[in-house]
Amino acid sequence: MRKLLLSLILLLFTSGTAFSMQVPTEIQDFVNQIFPNTNFRFDGAIILPDNTMYLPIFPANPNNVEEINIQSTYPLNETLKQKPDMVIFNNKYVLLKVINTNGKKTVINMTNPPDELQSGLLPQDILLPKGLVIPDSLKGIIGDLDVTVAQETGLRINNTRHNNKKSTTPVEQLDNKTFYISTGSNKNIQVINSNSKEPAYSLSQDFVINDIKGFDGKYLLVTYFDSKIMNIISLMDEKVIKQVNFETIPEQIVIDKENDLAYISSGSSSSIYVFSLKTMTLKRQLKINGHCEKLTLSSDGTKIFYVDRNKNDIWAIELDNNYLLKNIGSFPNISEIIYVNGKIYTISRTQNRLAIVDYETLNLINELEVCEKPVDLFAKGKELYILGAKDNILEILDTEDDVVTDKLFLNTNAFATNITPIDNSDMIMITNARSGLYSVVDTIDKDIVKTSPLDVPVRAIVITDKVKTIK
């Protein structure tokens, strides 16, 4: 056992692309007073809670004002609450609403646009809604922006075999949800409504997906086995709104929701990248020891754990302690790591063992025999859920006494592989990589609530509320 200060390099990144222009804070505050929880997207787009979209026009020479107010609107004399087609602020910033005219998305068409509009410019990294038509009188606001992107049809591939009769009744906690599924055998992301067993459509991808994670119910972060890019997909647009380039292939993604960060591993470069989910830019690169896999973030966001694929060593990075690197020890054939109440729990898939290590002393507290082929771990409060693939069993461990207190048999002939929590509930979903079905488990009652069919196997899944498209 040894404790080392990170022999890593901290590199501040600009990722090769310019930062997107951000709407000024004072305008954000003004809008949020009328429409709380407005999404000021990293590329400059403003999306109200009902998905009404405004495009900001940045002035060449903004006015310095003590207090932001609306100077004029179109239609005239409307308030922001009425969502006018155009808003001009007293600092010369302009908001243009994306409107539908005869089935086409466009913005207000004016014969003589005001000077604030004619002399302004759209953010040059903004993702325009697909099919958006800019009136000839406003062509000057485009700048160097590639408007051909706006004419794309997006990633959607409709399922011509979709049968509305193949319906299921989901548990209440999954009602009105959407599943975004990577199967491992098909490149595309399968999109399944929770009341159906088959994909309604898919989102086209160019490479086989390595990892897929959701953020804020509106975005997917996707890495691929044979590509040095990570795509950011907007579910409201069903388009790639940003492509992040890496020097080597990015692999696993973990999300820190509290701090709006993602951590992305790249084993071939012995690196973990820190990615801002607010600006959608790389912040820094952590050079680490070994070829990392099994990336895990502690629930409080203070520690990252990973396995060196070459040596089976477990390492921890203390994110709140100058990125201190700590060697936890070597364990065979690790399939998952988790950190609970000051203890590290790790399972060995081939030896059917659970090892428990005290984080501070690095002493081995205990080693237990668990279900055969343990493949995943999930912590809920003081309980640890251990998923065994061979017998499709879920063992529940009390982490205070470190004893197994319950066993739940999934009663399927499938090969269970993943535990996915269902947000804002006490339910978890157990999915299978070899067959199309999932089980929902109540972690309070310790009961299998329902097992439902799917037409596709699940390598990875993201569960969201149904996403409204941008108006």
Protein architecture, described:
This protein has 471 residues and is mostly beta strands. The chain has a domain at 25-151. Helix content is 3%, strand content 44%. It contains 2 helices and 39 strands. Strands 3-4-5-8-7-6 form a 6-stranded antiparallel beta sheet, with no helix packed on it. The chain has a 5-stranded antiparallel beta sheet with strand order 1-26-25-24-23, with no helix packed on it. A hairpin with a 5-residue loop joins strand 25 and strand 26 (324-330). The longest helix has 10 residues, at 25-34. The protein is globular. 37% of the residues are buried.
Provide a brief overview of the structure.
The protein is mainly β. The protein is built from 2 helices and 39 strands. Strands 3-4-5-8-7-6 form a 6-stranded antiparallel beta sheet, with no helix packed on it. A 5-stranded antiparallel beta sheet has the order 1-26-25-24-23, with no helix packed on it. The chain has a 5-stranded antiparallel beta sheet with strand order 2-22-21-20-19, with no helix packed on it.
Q: Helices, strands, pairings?
A:
Layout: E1 2-4, E2 10-12, H1 25-34, E3 39-40, E4 46-47, E5 53-57, E6 70-74, E7 86-89, E8 94-97, E9 99-101, E10 104-106, H2 115-118, E11 156-158, E12 177-182, E13 189-193, E14 201-203, E15 209-215, E16 219-224, E17 229-234, E18 239-245, E19 253-256, E20 261-266, E21 271-276, E22 281-287, E23 292-297, E24 303-308, E25 313-318, E26 324-330, E27 334-340, E28 343-348, E29 353-358, E30 364-369, E31 374-380, E32 383-388, E33 393-398, E34 403-409, E35 416-421, E36 427-432, E37 437-442, E38 447-453, E39 460-465
Antiparallel strand pairs: 1-26, 2-22, 3-4, 4-5, 5-8, 6-7, 7-8, 9-10, 11-14, 12-13, 12-39, 13-14, 15-16, 16-17, 17-18, 19-20, 20-21, 21-22, 23-24, 24-25, 25-26, 27-28, 28-29, 29-30, 31-32, 32-33, 33-34, 35-36, 36-37, 37-38
